[in-house]
């Protein structure tokens, strides 16, 4: 292809970038980190926890007031990076240690609740089945008693009531 050698009309901004384009490039995208691209978390070291945690990829370490890149390949930051009791992510008032303990307690409570509900439901079904079986046995027993009484007094349904005497 040959390079463009013609001239462009005066109203065209082709290749120059307009102010609107520049504003769109500078505006943060929805859901993106609020730090400019390429800005590392280490720039916020010796700043405040709130400033550091504005960028979701950063981790604040209270022990040395350092803003660190969150190790995304690991679930929890390693102890060599920052102790769990000093590490903050997302909000400054919750450390990882308290978060882990709270999640374990919450998870244990949910599991215990589910187990109790399952046991209660199984017990209720078992008792319901026992009642049904007991009722059927009682009903059969009562029917046999009634049949014996009818037979004793000659009221059984097997005999034809219109037979000559």
Automatic annotation (TrEMBL):
<dbReference type="GO" id="GO:0016020">
    <property type="term" value="C:membrane"/>
</dbReference>
<dbReference type="GO" id="GO:0006606">
    <property type="term" value="P:protein import into nucleus"/>
</dbReference>
<dbReference type="InterPro" id="IPR016201">
    <property type="entry name" value="PSI"/>
</dbReference>
<keyword id="KW-0472">Membrane</keyword>
<feature type="domain" description="PSI">
    <location>
        <begin position="40"/>
        <end position="93"/>
    </location>
</feature>
<protein>
    <recommendedName>
        <fullName>PSI domain-containing protein</fullName>
    </recommendedName>
</protein>
<keyword id="KW-0732">Signal</keyword>
<keyword id="KW-0325">Glycoprotein</keyword>
<keyword id="KW-1133">Transmembrane helix</keyword>
<dbReference type="InterPro" id="IPR052304">
    <property type="entry name" value="PTTG1IP"/>
</dbReference>
<dbReference type="GO" id="GO:0005737">
    <property type="term" value="C:cytoplasm"/>
</dbReference>
<feature type="transmembrane region" description="Helical">
    <location>
        <begin position="98"/>
        <end position="122"/>
    </location>
</feature>
<dbReference type="GO" id="GO:0005634">
    <property type="term" value="C:nucleus"/>
</dbReference>
<keyword id="KW-0812">Transmembrane</keyword>
């Amino acid at each position: 292809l040959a390079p463009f050698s013609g001239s462009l009309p005066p109203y065209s901004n082709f290749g120059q970038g307009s102010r609107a384009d520049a504003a769109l490039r500078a505006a943060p995208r929805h859901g993106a980190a609020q730090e400019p691209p390429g800005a590392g978390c280490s720039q916020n070291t010796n700043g405040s926890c709130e400033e550091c945690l504005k960028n979701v990829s950063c981790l604040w370490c209270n022990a040395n007031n350092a803003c660190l890149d969150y190790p995304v390949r690991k679930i929890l930051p390693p102890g060599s990076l920052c102790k769990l009791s000093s590490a903050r992510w997302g909000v400054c008032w919750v450390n990882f240690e308290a978060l882990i303990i709270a999640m374990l307690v919450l998870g244990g409570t949910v599991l215990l609740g589910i187990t109790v509900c399952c046991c209660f439901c199984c017990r209720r079904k078992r008792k319901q089945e026992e009642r049904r079986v007991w009722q059927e046995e009682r009903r059969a027993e009562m029917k046999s008693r009634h049949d014996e009484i009818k037979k004793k007094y000659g009221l059984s349904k097997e005999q034809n009531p219109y037979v000559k005497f």
